[in-house]
Amino acid sequence: MVIGIPKEIKSDEYRVAVTPAGTEMLVRAGHQVIIEQGAGLGSGFTDDYYEKAGAKVIARAEDVWASAEMILKVKEPTPREWPRMRKSQVIFTYFHFAASEELTRAVIDSGAVAIAYETVELANGQLPLLTPMSEIAGRMSVQEGAKYLERPQGGLGVLLGGVPGVLPGKVLILGGGVVGTNAAKVAAGLGARVGIMDINLDRLRYLDDVMPANVHTIFSTRYAIRKQIEDADVIIGAVLIPGAKAPSLITEEDLKLMRPGTVIVDVAVDQGGCVETIRPTTHKDPVYTVDGVIHYGVANMPGGVPRSSTLALTNATLPYAVALASKGWRRACATDPALKAGLNVVGGKVTYAGVAEAFGLTCTSADDVLRGPAVV
Question: Residue 157: which residues within 8 A CB-CB, separation 6 or more?
């Protein structure tokens, strides 16, 4: 199979979909890898590393898209890339369709086979291709929150860890999954007072057992959220519903309960966000203020640490990429339920319920697609 790796062109995105080591594995498996010139530079991988691994370096992105049977990316195709998608082409990347109807309809119209990293799901409910980026984003959320909490950045001027005789800052985390757990670890390590909220009592019991004494678990209700945000210094949105839009847990009206200079870091922004007033921002222009509350909405937080992120991501995605290339998408998905769960759009049909529900579209069962007439 011809596998194409275009350079990421989303603002401030420095990751690359495959490392030179991953390229070598794909080539040894019998596949041809073509990569756009300079695609790995943001992560510290020069073109000669890919050439030594057996890849062919291509100057123009258009030629990579036109030649590849499968495209490996990190972020969803941008509007500039939509015309390059074509019928039967497999695109394996983070899509987060539920946050963008325009993207969803563009992929439907293209006839491509869209397999989303974020909905590949194991039998135990784990999301193996989302987990490494969630770990990074969760850890980054605290350091970004701490930075914008500083007074020169417009924040409250609170040191999260405090000092002897001064109460530590308070970090409130909405969601006890991978993002929330990693955020709590870092916040606790800094010495902050940490509250982590969730609606899953079993998860809260687990977190209560494994977290240090300065992390407190709180069952999430509207009343509890409103009370907790009143004195929180940093609020981290860490709620995820796989493949669907994140629920709005903090409304615009709730901002009036917060102190001016409070910082919100909504890691769920690429799924629509769990704060009503959040909107996607970039690393170049990461924050804005609503009612005195600082909002950080960078949708590709791990892109700010691309070396670590690329290595962590490809450790997880590469086995699935090899399976797709070696077996073809249809057989690979038919034999691996986790990968089948990654099917979001196939040949103009939406195959993931969360995406269909977000925009009132008809959902076709992935099993029906796999059993039906060949799309490729």
Answer: 149, 150, 151, 261
Within-domain flag for 214 = yes
Is 63 known to be catalytic? no
DSSP per-residue codes, 269-310:
GGGT-SBTT---B-SSS-EEEETTEEEE-BTTGGGGSHHHHH
CA distances from 111 to 85, 215, 261, 308, 348 (A): 8, 48, 47, 34, 5
The CATH number assigned to the domain holding 152 equals: 3.40.50.720
Catalytic member of 12, 233, 266, 270: 270
Identify the pLDDT of residue 330: 95
Per-residue pLDDT at 8: 96
Pair 315, 366 in one domain: yes
Q: Is 202 a catalytic residue?
A: no
Tell me the pLDDT tens digit for each residue of 168-188: 999 999 999 999 999 999 999
Q: Considering the entire predicted model, what is its pTM?
A: 0.86
Which neighbouring-strand residues pair with 293? 290
Q: What local confidence, expressed as pLDDT, does residue 374 receive?
A: 53
Q: What is the pLDDT of residues 213-231, one digit of tens each?
A: 999 999 999 999 999 999 9
Residue-range definition of the domain harbouring residue 190: 133-299
pLDDT per residue as tens digits for the range 135-145: 999 999 999 99
User: Considering 31, 96, 198, 266, which one is annotated as catalytic?
Assistant: 96
